[in-house]
Amino acid sequence: MHKATLTSKGQITIPKEVREFLDVSAGDTLDFNFVFSFKENDIPKVEIKKADDRIKCPVCDGKGMFKKYGLRCFVCDYSGRFNREQWLAPLFLAGRRYGVDISMINEGNNLVPTLKLRSKIYTEELLIQVQDQLQMILIEDHAPRSISDPSKYMIPSDYELNNLLELLHSEEAKSVVKGWFRGDRTI
């Protein structure tokens, strides 16, 4: 068990091990939730967890950089953090600052918009990796859900699934997405 002392200003320092476990750093937001118990003589408890508004950037793995290329991550704007709920508008703005042209097109009968990245600064190899990661997020966000169990995806026809897989470049990304629809993947 970890302990912290409350100061006269109502502040505590969260122990290092707890900060690392929660993956939090300066500026992160924490949620405090009361854990109610109806047992007599139970000690009041509060659950502390990292707020869900920003997660570790899925593209640069929270590093803020593409170390292999020596370039800053334009997806998280060099912060290492990513807002999973509101990421498109900041991505377009950051892309412009980093010299990345980002376009999103909804073409044909595809269920999911197609994301395209172009840049004279970032290599095509890197842009394809980033594009696959972001396209997977779009697929996850836009793919129809099961009516009986919204935590699962609807099972698309082979034709529809192939259309989704054509949005991706790497075999690894295609395999993951195929597993979402042909495996037992939940949200």
What report would you give on this structure?
There is one protein chain. With 187 residues, the protein is of the alpha+beta class. It has 2 domains: 1-51, Ribbon (Pemi-like Protein 1, Chain: D); 55-182, no CATH class. Helices cover 30% and strands 17% of the residues. The chain has 5 helices and 8 strands; from the N terminus they run αββββββαββααα. It has helices at 16-22, 88-97, 124-142, 158-165, 171-182; strands at 30-35, 45-50, 55-56, 65-66, 71-72, 81-82, 100-105, 114-119. The strands form 4 sheets. A two-stranded antiparallel sheet has the order 1-2. The chain has a two-stranded antiparallel sheet with strand order 3-6. A hairpin with a 4-residue loop joins β4 and β5.
Q: What's the Cα radius of gyration?
A: 21 Å
- Contiguous uncertain segments of 5+ residues: none
Percent of residues in helical segments? Answer: 25-40%
Strand content: 15-25%
Q: What is the spatial order of strands in the main beta sheet?
A: 1-2
> How is the main sheet built?
2 strands, antiparallel
The first-to-last residue Cα distance is 32 Å
| Sheet/helix structural class | alpha+beta
What's the tally of helices? 5
Q: What order do the SSEs take from the amino end to the carboxyl end, as H and E? A: HEEEEEEHEEHHH
Give the CA-based shape: flat
Please give the domain count.
2
Average residue-wise pLDDT:
86
According to DSSP, the number of beta strands is 8
